[in-house]
Write a structure and sequence with these properties.
The chain has about 775 residues and is α+β, with helices and mostly antiparallel strands. It contains 12 helices and 43 strands. Strands 1, 2, 3, 5, 6, 10, 12, 14, 15 and 43 form a 10-stranded mixed sheet that branches. The longest helix has 15 residues. The radius of gyration is 29 Å and the shape is globular.
Length: about 775
């Protein structure tokens, strides 16, 4: 299925409503006949459906715009019948209308009309409701009856309308390869002559043929026998697995800034905000204290909730409205904070960021759709601060807060450079420090005490989890986690939490009883098993080992684990020390035994947010060595040092009972378009550590929009600046950004006038 931002239309005015219309195919559409014969490549098909044609056509010639889609697919087996006999068309009823043209099945040479108007339904799913997002998007739904294996489905419809917040600017695109094989691809664009357009190719060399007359230019992209792009687990969110082509009418990022700055032009100051500013000035002498409390007010007193209806998906609500209703999304909270800071004499601007593309957002052609979140850039007399008004329960001083993970932002202002780097200085101390103490008893059991100290962003995340999870549920998560290693483990006392929000330090104390901590070998000697599982989860090893895509890592971690075992009698164990060094991480581990005490020290630091495919084999080899270093087996009877066990994968860490929402409220879900993004690869979480497995599909970009909503936390996909070698590779990887200058010559429009783009002296540059 073709995944696109809903474009725009020509023709007579269409009434926007939630009910679909039924009409013949528009006259401007050029019919493409699918090649229904030929052999079906059964070995390349997943899901039981083979796509014969994916035809999309866009008309941008009039006051309204239109996207026409024509899909032809064959049901290869019963799974295909199960999956493909339900037709869905998502749309936004505030500014879009769906027009259905044809639903037809070809069976053994017979054409069967399957468009039963009485069975067409419009439903409202609100798929992001659990994430405090209400966008009003609807879906036209049609269940087909009497669909059989071998049937060929021909489905045609048009989506009419465009979000008026873009002020008529054209933003669109289409994917070339997707996750299913395709026999024929067609994309056609009718573009007004004289209006500049940028066509940006991403991971593809596909170019259009074109023709022109005195009023418009017609572009056609065509390809055949396209293979499916196979998923590889754990690729970074900024990696685009699907080749695609982007259209944008914005000619520069400065133009995007001008457009966005107009959305945040707020001159009003509600009385409530004036009163709040006066109160902050009366209670705090220092400007930094006033700014910090203003930020905390917006973060913690204005709850996160996004009402993303129509222009509200992009345009912020007025500060008066936000203060009155006491809720808002990222753009609402940012706008409120800017007005409040203005009353305090502080200049601040909104900045668009991408939670998926991060530092790679500017590799796209200029477009608001490159972003899905808004943060705030604050200008103080001596420094610039970047803050996120949606990050609730954040700790630290104004200058000591955890840095934002987005790395680059487009500042919405009328003057100045559009792009600015968002500083992420390296960690100066461990973000997580763990002390585990095992006190052995005469009965072979052991008391285990775990004290974990979180600092900075880790403290912010844990603070959010403690709010969203019950203490009892969290204790059960922890207990079941350790039960993978010690099946008979039980609680000795409840969790104890100490929180210092000012210093942004949070500690958790756990106490357990392990009745059978010591095991007995065949010779009657005692041994125990120890493992630094908190570090193991930071060294993921995906199921896809032979990779063509980069593998995601968490680059901003510094974890130290001290494990102490106090024996009842002296154990004579030799000391051991080992180290594994990789461009992506460093692991040090050593053990010392002095009489009745064994001390194991482990330190882990990460340096990169990804591993390139050509470096992945070495990464796996080093991971295996690292996992060996993290598992120990001290044996009393043979007086041997802690021996390296065979590598074994740690169990899946416990999941939070309720994932934090407002700590980081924006994700790459749809906002500027009614289309729904496919889910990212799941994220795994540990009570102490985590790593992200994120996927960014082309739909997330095309349908992303500016304002944010979603479910991911700030912990997802922490990224750092790429090494110079990768930067050079990325410069060529994203394709050329080439504006089209419309030619002055006039050519007749006829089928024979279609020429290949790129022929010398024959076409605009794409």
């Amino acid at each position: 299925m073709l995944l696109l931002v809903a474009p725009t239309v020509s023709g007579a005015t269409v009434r926007v409503s939630g009910d679909p219309r039924f009409a013949p195919t528009p006259s401007w559409v050029v019919e493409f006949a699918a090649e229904t014969g030929g052999e079906v490549p059964a070995d390349r098909i997943s899901g039981g459906v083979y796509y014969l044609l994916r035809d999309s056509q866009e008309n941008a010639l009039g006051s309204e715009r239109q996207l026409y889609r024509h899909v032809v697919k064959v049901f290869v087996n019963e799974q295909g019948v199960q999956n493909g006999s339900q037709l869905e068309i998502p749309f936004d009823p505030d500014y879009e209308t769906v027009v259905i043209h044809q639903v037809q099945v070809e069976r053994q040479g017979q054409l069967l009309d399957k468009l039963d108007r009485g069975r067409v339904r419009v439903i409202q799913r609100e798929q992001a409701l659990e994430s405090e997002i209400y966008d009003g998007a609807k879906t036209v739904l049609l269940f087909l009856d009497d669909v059989r294996i071998g049937d060929v489905l021909d489905f045609r419809y048009t989506v009419v309308g465009d979000n008026p917040v873009y002020q008529g600017k054209f933003l669109s695109g289409f994917s070339v390869n997707t996750d299913v094989p395709l026999r024929q691809l067609r994309h056609r664009l009718l573009w007004p002559r004289g209006r500049p357009l940028t066509i940006h190719r991403h991971e593809t060399e596909l170019k259009p043929r074109w023709r022109r007359n005195e009023s418009f230019v017609e572009y056609r992209w065509e390809a055949s026998d396209l293979d499916a792009v196979l998923y590889e687990d754990g690729y970074p969110s900024w990696h685009w697995p699907f080749p695609w082509i982007q259209f944008t009418e914005f000619q520069s990022w400065e133009e995007v800034c001008q457009w966005g700055a107009e959305l945040y032009q707020t001159t009003e100051t509600p009385p409530e905000i004036r009163e709040l500013a006066d109160d902050l000035e009366s209670r705090h002498q220092e400007l930094s204290d006033r700014v910090l409390e203003a930020l905390r007010f917006v973060q913690n007193e204005i709850r996160y909730l996004g009402i993303e209806l129509g222009e509200g998906a992009i345009r912020p609500s007025s500060p008066a409205t936000v203060v009155q209703r006491r809720y808002g999304d990222c753009k609402d909270k940012t706008n409120l904070l800017i007005v409040l800071l203005r009353e305090l004499g502080v200049t601040a601007h909104p900045a668009l960021v991408s939670s998926s593309l991060r530092r790679h957002a500017d590799r796209c052609a200029p477009s608001p759709s490159a972003f899905n979140h808004v943060v705030t850039r604050i200008s103080l007399p001596d420094q610039v601060l970047w803050v996120d008004p949606t990050w609730s329960r954040q700790g630290g001083t104004l200058t000591g807060q955890a840095p934002l993970p987005y790395e680059k932002g487009l500042v919405l202002r009328h003057q100045g450079e559009p792009w600015e780097a968002i500083s992420r200085p390296p960690l100066r101390s461990p973000d997580t420090a763990i002390l585990k103490v095992f006190q052995l008893q005469r009965n072979r059991g052991a008391q285990m005490t775990v004290e974990t100290q979180y600092r900075g962003e880790e403290a912010d995340w844990m603070r959010g989890r403690l709010v969203h999870s019950s203490r009892e549920g969290l204790e059960q998560d922890y207990l079941n986690y350790y039960a993978h290693f010690y099946p008979d483990i039980e609680f000795d006392s409840p969790l104890v939490v100490h929180d210092d929000p000012v210093e942004n330090l949070l500690s958790v104390e756990e106490r357990y009883w392990i009745p059978s901590f010591l095991q007995q070998d065949r010779s009657g000697g005692n041994y125990a098993e120890l493992s630094s599982v908190e570090v193991q989860t930071l060294l993921p090893r995906p199921s896809t080992r032979r990779r063509t895509m980069p593998f995601v890592l968490d680059d901003r971690r510094w974890v130290v684990v001290d494990t102490i075992v106090n024996f009842q009698d002296p154990w004579k164990l030799e000391s051991y020390e080992g180290q594994v060094s990789n461009p992506a991480f460093l692991l040090r581990a050593k053990s010392e035994c002095h009489g009745k005490q064994l001390h194991i020290e482990t330190e882990f630091r990460s340096f990169s947010d990804h591993v390139l495919p050509e470096d992945f084999a070495q990464y796996l080899e080093d991971c295996d060595q690292a996992h060996d270093l993290l598992t120990w087996q001290p044996d009393e009877s043979r007086r041997r040092p802690p021996a390296i066990l065979a590598t074994r994968a740690p169990p899946s860490p416990p999941q939070a009972a309720s994932a934090p929402v407002t700590q980081a409220s924006e994700t790459p879900t749809t906002e500027a378009s009614p289309l729904v993004s496919p889910p990212n690869t799941p994220t795994t979480r540990d009570p102490r550590t985590r790593w992200m497995v994120a996927g960014f599909l082309v739909l997330a970009f095309l349908a992303g929009g500016v304002a944010g909503h979603g479910v991911a936390t700030h912990r997802h996909g922490r990224e750092r600046e790429i090494v110079r070698e990768l930067q050079q590779r990325q410069d060529t990887r994203f394709g050329a950004n080439e504006p089209i200058q419309q030619p002055l010559e006039v050519s007749p429009v006829s089928p024979s006038s279609l020429v290949n783009a790129g022929a010398e002296g024959s076409s605009p540059r794409d």
